[in-house]
Design goal:
Largest sheet: 8 strands, parallel
Radius of gyration: 17 Å
CATH superfamily: Alanine racemase
Shape: globular
Bound molecules: pyridoxal-5'-phosphate
Number of domains: 1
CATH class: Alpha Beta
Structural class: alpha/beta
């Protein structure tokens, strides 16, 4: 399936006036497909699997910004800390501590987003508000334990549904959380990024206040 450059430019045009970042989700696509978009100027790419992001990192130009958007297991953190641009799906203190520990070993601060559970499906990961508060409080109280992470914002995935009201409601809730906590500024936390919106719901996500969208299928075709 060829990369859809027309769609790429169409989306870029929609995002530009609003200063929204496009992460091109390239999981299961070849490095050749990625390079096709790279050559159009795209630099931010999102990957879900550790082995895949590591392999691709070795093949892609050094100024490619690789985002990890999947569910990260603590025991795999060390494989990606040396190059990852932003980890979107952090959903526990245990994971955050491990990321900071691995970051410390190579003296690199790892940028992270906290994933909030907004969908109906229980299979989707994420923190509830109480857990989010707990993470922020802990990071604030023990800055040295988390010296090599920086929390840049929140991420969420809406329910897989074409019920516009429902999906918008979930995005609204995430935006509300973002606004509520964005003034909490600590040594290693300042919420400026709101990562929400995928191929099927990004237009709603933008209207509800997204600052970063993650698009795969519209650019690279449906995954099989
Ligand atoms: C796969 C994936 C996307 C992209 O999905 P599309 O529907 O192909 O745009 C976005 N975010 C996450 C977390 C994903 O796993």
């Amino acid at each position: 399936m060829p990369v859809n450059k027309t769609k790429y430019y169409e989306i870029k045009k929609e995002l530009e006036p609003k200063n929204i970042t496009l992460v091109a989700v390239s999981k299961v696509r070849t490095d050749k497909d990625i390079l096709e978009l790279y050559n159009e100027g795209q630099r931010d790419f999102g990957e879900n699997y550790v082995q895949e992001i590591v392999e691709k990192q070795g093949l892609l130009p050094k100024d490619t910004r690789l985002h990890f958007i999947g569910h990260l297991q603590s025991n795999k953190v060390k494989q990606i800390v040396s190059f990852v641009h932003l980890i979107h799906g952090v959903d526990s203190l245990k994971l955050l501590r491990e990321i900071s520990k691995q970051g410390a070993k190579i003296n690199r601060v790892i940028h992270c987003l906290l994933q909030i559970h907004i969908a109906e499906e229980q299979t989707k990961f994420g923190l509830n508000e109480e857990e989010l508060l707990n993470v922020i409080a802990e990071v604030k109280q023990k800055p040295m334990e988390y010296a090599h992470i920086f929390i840049d914002g929140l991420m969420g995935m809406a329910t897989f549904s074409d019920d516009e009201e429902k999906v918008r409601g979930e995005f609204k809730y995430l935006k509300y959380m973002f606004d509520k906590y964005k003034d909490v500024t600590t040594l290693n936390c300042n919420l400026t990024i709101l990562s929400m919106g995928m191929s099927d719901d990004y237009k709603w996500a933008i209207e509800e206040g997204s600052t970063m969208i993650r698009i795969g299928s519209l650019l690279f075709g449906r995954r099989i």
